[in-house]
Amino acid sequence: MPPILPDFCNSVKLKYVKLGYQYLVNHILTLTLIPVMAGIVIELLRLGPEEIVNLWNSLHFDLVQILCSCFFIIFTATVYFMSKPRSIYLVDYACYKPPVTCRVPFATFMEHSRLNLINNPKSVEFQMRILERSGLGEETCLPPAIHYIPPTPTMEAARGEAEIVIFSAMDSLFKKTGLKPKDIDILIVNCSLFSPTPSLSAMVINKYKLRSNIKSFNLSGMGCSAGLISIDLARDLLQAHPNSNAVVISTEIITPNYYKGNERAMLLPNCLFRMGGAAILLSNHHSERWRAKYRLVHVVRTHKGADDKAYRCVFEEEDKESKVGISLSKDLMAIAGEALKSNITTIGPLVLPASEQLLFLLTLIGRKIFNPKWKPYIPDFKQAFEHFCIHAGGRAVIDELQKNLQLSAEHVEASRMTLHRFGNTSSSSLWYEMSYLEAKGRMKKGDRIWQIAFGSGFKCNSAVWKCNRTIKVQTDGPWADCIDRYPVHIPEVVKL
Amino acid sequence: MSKSTNVSKSFHKILAHFFPFMISYSATFNHQSMVLPEQEHLVYNIRLSSVGPGRVTGSDVVHDLSGLDIAMKLHYLKGVYFFTDQAVEGLTIRQMKETMFYWLNDYYITCGRIRRTESGRPYIKCNDCGIRFVEGVCDKTIDEWLELGDDSLHNLLVYHRAIGPELSFSPSVYLQVTRFKCGGISLGMSWAHILGDAFSASEFINNWGRYMARLKSNGPLTLPKSLDNKIEKPHDPNQFVKEPLSAKQVNPVGDLWIAANNCKMETFSFYLSTLHLSSLQEKILGEDGRKRISPFSSVCAVIWQCIAKVREGFEPQIVTVCRKYPNYDNNVLSNSQIISAIKADFSVMEADLKKLALLMADDQGLDERNKIEAAVEKDDGVTDYIMYGTNLTFVNLEDANLYELELKGQKPKFAYYSIQGVGDEGAVLFLPGPPKGSNTENEGKLVTITLPEDQVLKLKTELQRTGLLPTELE
To answer: Which Gene Ontology molecular-function terms are recorded (chain B) (predicted)?
Structure first.
């Protein structure tokens, strides 16, 4: 019977049955309540008004009883409101837009590769194949130090890049939100591969003269999913501290990490990673609920580090020539799939409507009890979310997720276009994707957004946001000058 | 292919294999104006990067090359501009590079790379790869540098690599900015002649100056109409039968675009003040002739005769004269300069200078551009040609606007151009001299002569005898 079902699914009639089932299960409470209410009303009407008044008078109320009841109600209400987690609002965020002077067209990247790897034409060929299929466009940017032949990644250049990216994003955030530097209570900076002393968060505090009692954190080494880890940390801190503002800065500094060797597994990041950064303002001020763009609903973190293969799949190490680079293992996609499954299993019950959860439960029971050969039911996440922001880690990641979650091309458009225009900007790519959706005018009030990020470790982190107000198309932002050209068709293989 | 070209080809391959790490010019017959090893360290801290257009030109944008362009492929122009510290005060490399990203939006053709069609005809793929930007430092002041008097040293200020052997990874343009001890800079440009002539190259770099001064800004992206830069097609089919006099075929060079010489070439230059020029005119032409013949013609006549005397028995009967095309469109890069072949039916050595000068006037000589175009198109651009040095070549760059490149409103202190890849017959460039004050009429002229090195000393003696060259060199 199971193999026949998929054919039926294509028929239109079954589609309506599905819709009916979903409506029934999702609104089961309302649907059961209506007959109950109807029953009570009919009963009351039957009794008649005098009977109701007699019933009321027969209840003897004592002053003590009334006071106790009131006290009990007030006490329960207070406990409920106190223990309710504070709403975390995302007031606004700003993404860094690199200047045209940092632009690296395909041809320039290949030529520089050829000159830098002059003794390894095979590695150059490999990079060309990667670039052709990468899904990147001709406008992605690398920092100035990497434009040199050979690249000149000094610490000073790395700091310079960090300053340009972070300060631009911060200035933009201040302008957009009207935030004063002195009002920042929590500062979290995440940058995986560049971790100087004093930290980047200290650099920000120094530049903007932030308060001396600020709670600052600098997360390094946590990979591309560190952005959502920072959001999670900010959320926990905002639960502990009432009426606070938290600024989260997600970025990746490319300068010190350009791989100078010729090991193929390590050349891949060179082809994909590009300059980018984002600054996000989170707040638990009650007054922000009017102007905040989003409200944080869930953050789910899954860590597969306990598995050795997962731990080693994205590994920074020295190659045979003692050149440091990040080695990506061949099972990366498989491990990512596993991590995603884990994450979905946790997030599913939190976000999926009851209809999907019931189906999933039934198929699970069916598989366990009746027939283990039944195909596992993949819940339809399109019912739980309006928008998907998949970390633009590479074309393969987006393709894999599109397949696993059965998403349409429009759902993954934001991720693909971000990869095309900005490349893989690591932890900040999710924010460029959100920005794309806003620039296209697709964010309406009540929309739910799912941000998924993968990172070294191996981690899969998700965040669920709910759009707080319909967002008007803005004239600033990283997409302002090019949104009209998007979406573009990205060919399977670009002719170089 | 002869054995010597085989050997030189493999040598080129080895050279090209290590080319990013070479900053010296090795002593081969294929490089002119060799720099001595002990002088190489004068410019150091060489750093290479690329600058390209800030705007995406688009995929599959192609620039077709005309026959004339392809005929010039083995030649390169090298120009150096010296700016004093006042002109570049506070100017950083970063600012220079930033302006270039806007300037190159107009010149996306120079940022492309050479490809070949299936039939082997070269064309330019406009893939925004960029021009090479080179930085260097020199511990001398500009005055000290210019006092050294050795033209071959200017090669240290112009980073130059021939196109090839990997055509798709060879930039056509290199720009080198060298900082001197006095705070001034030199801007060295290596320009592949396939893109355009010296008038185009000069306009190209002058526009950068205008972008630096914010006098220009980008217009909308205009893609080329492929026949824009072609000159009018000739009507007479009989013109095509004969091979051109001013360009000749050379042995195939494959994908490494270097013109081979049979002997080492050397370049030297000298300055002629306006006074000197007018006295020379008087001497040759008398009072009336001056109005009909330009200083260029008279100077070239003297040089022609001197070279004829030096090459006794093999005097050059045919010379090539190149000058600016009067209807030159300075918005387009093109090889539009007029290339005329001038034949002397009499002995040059004993001729009357006036007669020679008249022969070289603007309206004389056969314009060979169409002939060259036809010769190249005959086998669709596959054969390799050279133009400069096929015959003794005189190039009039008076109107090349060399001193219009301005930084902070200041003209260059000195500008110098030379040609890389001149054939064995040699070439003479007639350049405007450095401006003295605001009156351009006060400027003299700079003459540079490239000849086989064994003829240079004898020529200098001859020129001194005629009074063209002062006995004490500047």
So the answer is: acyltransferase activity, transferring groups other than amino-acyl groups
**A144 to chain B: which residues are within 8 Å by CB?**
94
A303 is catalytic: yes
A149 to B101: CB separation less than 8 angstroms, yes or no: no
B240: confidence class by pLDDT, cuts 50, 70, 90 = low
How close B208 comes to chain A (CA, Å)?
15
Q: Which helix (H) or strand (E) holds A43?
A: helix A28-47
pLDDT (tens digit, 9 = 90+) per residue, B286-295? 766 556 788 8
Could you tell me the CA-to-CA distances from B261 to A167, B31, B214, B265 in Å, in that order?
Answer: 57, 8, 44, 8
Residue type, B267: T
Write out pLDDT tens, residues B36-45. 777 788 999 9
Test B129 with A105 for CB contact under 8 angstroms: yes
Is A391 assigned a catalytic role?
A: yes
Look up residue A98 and give its DSSP letter: -
Asked if residues A393 and A454 have their Cβ atoms less than 8 Å apart, the reply is yes
Taking a C-beta distance cutoff of 8 angstroms, is the pair B102, B218 a contact?
Answer: yes
Cα A63 to the center of its chain, rounded Å: 55
Would you say how long chain A is, in residues? 496
Contact B169 A115 (CB under 8 A): yes
Instruction: Name the domain count of chain A.
Output: 1
Residue B21 has pLDDT above 50, yes or no: no
For A278, counting Cβ atoms within 10 Å of its Cβ (0-12 exposed, 13-18 middle, 19+ buried), the class is buried
Q: How many CA atoms lie within 13 A of B378 on its CB side?
A: 18
Whether residue A2 is preceded by a cis peptide bond, meaning omega within 30 degrees of 0, is no
Using the predicted structure, report yes or no on whether residue B32 has a pLDDT greater than 50.
no
Q: Give the model confidence (pLDDT) of B370-380 as tens digits.
A: 999 999 999 88
As a whole number of angstroms, the distance between CA A54 and CA B431 comes to 118
| Residue A31, pLDDT above cutoff 80 | yes
| Residue A177, domain CATH | 3.40.47.10
Nearest CA in chain B to A98: B54
Domains of chain B: 43-217 (3.30.559.10), 248-466 (3.30.559.10)
Chain A hits for B60, CB-CB cut-off 8 Å, are: 495
B130 at interface of A, judged by CB pairs closer than 8 A: yes
Q: Which of A99, A107, A114 sits opposite B127 (nearest CB)?
A: A107
**What integer pLDDT is reported at residue B13 of this predicted model?**
55
Task: Assess if residue A39 is contained within a domain.
Answer: no
Catalytic choice (A245, A424, A461, A468): A424
- Measured CA to CA, the distance from residue A133 to residue A394 in angstroms comes to 10
| Burial of A18 per CB tally in 10 Å (0-12, 13-18, 19+) | middle
Contact B50 A147 (CB under 8 A): yes
Cross-chain residue pair A152–B98, CB shorter than 8 Å: no
CA–CA min distance A105, chain B (Å): 6
pLDDT score, position A145: 94
Domain that holds residue A337: 88-485
Residues of A in contact with B169 (CB under 8 A): 110-111, 114-115
Of A167-171, B23-27, B367-371, give the lowest mean pLDDT range: B23-27
How far apart are the C-alpha atoms of A29 and A21, rounded to whole Å? 14
Q: B192-230 pLDDT, tens per residue?
A: 999 999 999 999 999 999 999 887 777 776 665 544 444
Residue B17's pLDDT is 52
Select the residue of A108, A152, A495 nearest B50 (Cβ to Cβ): A108
- B98 at A interface, C-beta within 8 A: yes
User: Which residues, at least 6 apart from A60, have a Cβ–Cβ distance to it below 8 Å?
Assistant: none
**Under a CB-based contact definition with an 8 Å cutoff, are residues B336 and B197 in contact?**
yes
The reply to whether A48 falls in a domain is no
Asked whether residue B231 carries a pLDDT value surpassing 70, the answer given is no
Q: What is the pLDDT of residue B103?
A: 94
Q: Is A60 an active-site residue?
A: no
Integer-rounded Cα Rg, in Å, for chain A is 27
